[in-house]
Every structure is written in structure tokens, then in C-alpha cells.
Amino acid sequence: MIEAAAQKTYDEKQDMDFSVLLVDDDERIRQALGLALADEGFAVDEAVSGEDALRRLGGDGYDVVLLDLMLPGVDGLQVCRMLRAQGDLPIIIVTARTDTPDVIAGLEAGADDYVTKPLVASELAARIRALLRRRGGTKQNISYRVEDLEIWPDEGVVHRGGKEIRLTRTEFRLLAELAAAGGRIVTREQLLQRVWGYDYYGDTRLLDVHVRRLRMKVEHNPEDPVFVLTVRGSGYKFGPPR
Amino acid sequence: MPVPRPSLRWRVAAALGLGSLLVTSLLALATWNLASDYMLRQRLQATTRQAEVNVRLVDETLRRGSDGLTELLTGLTTDPDSTIMLFRSSEVLTSGRQVDPAVVPSDLLAMARDGVPARQRLRADGIPVIAVAQPLAEGQGLYVELFPLVQLDRTFRFLSGLLIGGTVLSGLIGTTLGSWASRRALRPLTELTAAASRIAGGDLKARLPAQADPDLAPLATTFNTTADALEQRVLRDARFASDVSHELRSPLTTMVNAAAVLKRRQAELPGTAGKALWLLTSEVDRFARMVVDLMEISRADQVGDQQDFEPLDLEGLVRGVAGHKLGEDVEIVVEPPPPVVSGDRRRLDRVIGNLIENAEFHAGGAVRLAVLHHDGQARLEVDDAGPGVPPDMRTQVFERFTRGDRAGSRGADTGSGLGLALVAEHVRRHHGRVWVEDRPGGGARFVVEIPEASR
User: Fold this and answer.
1) Among residues 193-252 of chain B, which lie with CB inside 8 Å of chain A?
2) What ipTM was assigned to the predicted interfaces of this complex?
3) Is A101 near chain B, with CB under 8 Å?
4) Is the pLDDT of residue A10 over 70?
5) Does any CB of chain A come closer than 8 Å to the CB of residue B255?
6) Which candidate in B144, B183, B393, B448 could, as Cys together with B85 as Cys, close a disulfide (CB 3.0–4.6 Å)?
7) Crossing angle of helices B217-264/B150-200, nearest 10°?
8) How many CA atoms lie within 13 Å of B55's alpha carbon, on the beta-carbon side?
């Protein structure tokens, strides 16, 4: 219910109306980034801690959360997990930690994307826009079906065995991109470009973690996938293994 | 030229081998001398006794008249190889194996003639014999008997073969034993070497197993303590670098974003203040880039892992980065089949991107990229048509904060000064090489070679 309502508002909003919750314990970063994002056309609210963020998110709906991982009290990873448990609100992690384990932990906790400090507002704005981009208008009511998995890209719905599977926006877009290729290989670069809007310098760790999460949800046995297949050295493809 | 010293193991093995060879050869020599002496003496005594008996019989016969002498001589030669000769005044009577009397040495005969029984070893017609010469009674001549030594000779040969073989065998056994023992004794040292090289290779968790042997326990303990201290030190340094990096990132984030806000409103601040603002904001960007590069290079300094390595198509990487950073008109040459390397995508992206940026900053931009095969290496060439790099600067350009005073550089925007140092660092991590040379036709050619991965 909540999801459907949120979906609708995305489609109606212009860039200028996107509201962003910026969670960071560094006052100056909040102010500077807040000013710069406002320049980029976003409505920015600030939260100083994990508790503060959760309180604010409980009420009014935001379009996206920018989350620092190092927070006093309830830390960013925990906030991320709690938000993900509640719904599919897009989360971008804004972190000073660039080492692989930190990045992976953030993505595993359910983040849609991540950027590392020092980041420029324009770069961040591009990430937010990519994340909130409306679904490509296919117009026709296309659906894809492999075995007992059914995908309706226009409705944003996935069924397996007649039961709906809840995916985040990013997971759904990833699945839909693979399904739209109709069993052809989609390279990692193409996926990063189409799903996350990265021009080239995408981080494949981002993709790897999302594929893992997607498999956990859609595959009967994530260890032995039949829908989201890895093509070693080039990318992924959708479909029954041949 | 000094001869390389053989290894300790081989020296121990050789010493043990030589030692055992020496001892056994001394023993063998002593055995040979005693045994051969004894056997020869026994044989000599036997032949002398035999000869004395025979001489007595011959004397007897001669005294009775010379009838039946020939029969007697024939009867006396029991052995087919033995020979009896009677030297009488006018003739030589021979019985048994026929041998030329001339083989009997004249001084032997002379001694016997003087009344002294004599004997001598010699070879007669190809077989070793003992010649025993005795005077016959009443000056009737000389009795000479040749006893064959074939049996004794064979025994000697067998004995000497046995002793020599034993000596050689003992030398070999000594060498083997030495080699084995020294390897056993050096095994802890081998473990130490392995552990030390694992640490050198980046595995700070490598330790020696606890040793029960009192001679080895202190070594293992000292080594492990040192390794513990080293690991602590490295972890502390890494934590420090990571803390510094984190602490710097926060103010930088504030600065670059505040600068972005200011830049947007630059028009509102004319004159001197505006110029100062422009200086400030562009320096902030450069500063941010420098810090990010510095953090990357200090992270690259740390113990590296290869867990992010994957097979990568170099052509794909180059086209990806070039498509992002270069115009359509830049020539990209690829030698088929496109080389595949095992590497970290982000680091190799940085390598390609930094080389392209370097050409842009210092030489007006790259004019040609090439992806080639060269002796099992994947080779990347980035050419520019700038002034080139003078030979004495060619190593230096890959050092940190070396700024080229190359003509044609864009002055204000010269990058962080770490771009090529990062290239060198990342290439080294991929077990490759990077250098700069003259481009045929003018300009510089930066070359990266990374081992090709098996497909």
C-alpha cells in the first residue's frame, strides 16, 4: 500500500521537488552539503544522528536518504538495515570509509548506492537523479516470464509461483534490465550504466552485492541460480540455464 | 671471479662422505696388507716344505742311479700347472707344464748354486708362480719347482675388489647420510625461511610452530615475537593512515561543497574579492584531488590483497576510459585477439585514466592509444605529440610530486603531482612495468606492460 502510494509520487514529482534527508553528525558538512544540494534543486532536511534520522523518517516521506555510516549512537549500518526492513526507501551511503569491507557492509545492509567523501554536490545530485529516475515508458503492457517467475516492468511487480516478491527499486530495475535483454548477455558496464547511471567509472562491487541480494529474493536456491546467471568474465544474463 | 661457496648442506654431506671414505679406506688397506701377507706366507711355507720333500726324493733317486728319475719327476708334479726342472751339468730335465727354463732368473739359480735355498714370485708363460730353487746333494745340480699361484691370485683379486667396493659404498652412504642429516637439522631453518618470506610477501600472520627442541625453541620464540611486533606496527600504521584519511575527508567535503556554492555566485562578487574567490575555489578543488590521490597512494603502499583481481579485457577497459575522457578522433589500435590480464578494474581504470590525463596536462592530449601483445605481456601505449620527456627525467616523472617543467603544460591546472606515481604503484601491484620513451615522430610514449592472464 505504502509502496504503491510512494511510487505514484515519484512519477508526479519534478527534480526540483525531491526531498532529501541528509544524515551526518558533522555540522559543517551538513550545512555545506545542504547549501550545495539546495543549489542543485533539492529540498534538504538534516538529521544529526541515527535516532534523529529514524524519528524523522517515521513521519513525513522523503524521496531519498543520504546516510553517513559513522554516526554516534545507532550507527549508519543499523539505520540502513532498519529502513530496509521497513520498505524500499532509496538509500545512498555517504562515507569516508573506502575500503572494500566497509563498502560491502554498507551495500549488504541494503543501501542502493554509495559515494565516498570528499564528494561534490553535483556528483551526488547525479546519483540521486539516477536512483529516482522514472521507469522507462514502454507503453505496451509487456511482461517477462521464465519458469514460475513473472515480471511486469510497468507495474513494478514480480511474482514467483503466483506470489509477489518484494524488491527494492534498484533490485527491480536490475532484474528488469536483465529480463529486457531476453537471455542475451548484459555486461557489467551496461548494467552499471543503465541501473545506476554511472558513465564508466562504476564500481563493480556495487553490482556484485546487488546481484547477490536479488538472488536471495528471487532464486529458489541462491547458490544455484536459474534466473540471474553469471557469465564469467563478461556479465550477467537472464533466463533458464542452457 | 670468486667461486660460489657450496651450500651448508652439501658441505656437511661432503665432509661426512669424505670422512667415512677415509676411515673405511684405512681399514681396507690394513685388512688387505694383513690378509694378503698372511695368505702369501702360508702358501710360501707350504711350497717350501713341499719342495724340501721333493728334493729329498730326487736326491734319493740320484744316489741310487739315475734310473726312474723321469718317472719320479712325473709323479711329483701333481698339479697340471706346476713345473719341476732339474738343472744338471749338461741338461735341463723338465716335467709337468712345459716352461722355457730361461724364465727362471739367473740370480735365483746363482743363490741356489751357492747352497742357499731361494724362492721368488714371477710370471711364467702367463700364470703367476712361485719358483723355489734348491741345490741337490753333492753338487749334482739344482732343483727348481714352479708352484702355480692362480688360486691365491684369484682370492687376492676377489678380496681387493670387495675392499674397494666396500670403501666406495661407505663413501656414498656417508654422503647420503650427511645430506639427510643436514636436511633434518636444517628443517627448522627451512620453516623459518618460509615463514619469513610469507611475512615479506605480506602475510603478517605467518608464525613458526612452537619447538620442543631446546636448541630451536629460542629461535622460534624470537622470530614469533618479532613477527608479532611487526604485525602490531603495521596494523597501527594502517589504522593511523585510515584515521587520518577519514579525518581529512570530512573538512574536505565541507570545503569543496562550500566552494561549489561560492563558484555558482562568483558573478555576485566582482573585482579583487572575486579574483581571490576564484583562486580559493580552484585551489580547493586541486587540494581535494591531491588529498584523494595521496590517500589512494598511501593505501596502495599498505599490504595489498589480490582478492579484487579478476580477468579483464584490456581493450574494453581502454575503450571505456577513452570513451569517457577522449574525443572520437583519437586513434585506438588493438592487436587481436584483445589481451586479457588479471587485475583490479578500479586500479587499471586509474592507470589508463591518469596516463590520458597526464598527456592532456603536459602535451596537449593523447593522440594514439594502443593495446598490443608483447612477449607474453599485455602492452598499453599512450602517445602524445608534445615535447617529449628528456632522458634524465624519465625515471623521475614516476616519482611523487615531480612536476614536469615541460613546455605546453596548461599552467594553472597541472593535476595533483601524484598521477604518474599512482600509475607506477598500481602497475607494480599488477606485476607489470611502466616507462616512458620517445614516440616515433615526436612526443612521448608511455608504455605499460602487464603479464597476460590465461583465458
Assistant:
1) 242, 245-246, 249-252
2) 0.81
3) no
4) no
5) yes
6) B144
7) 30
8) 23
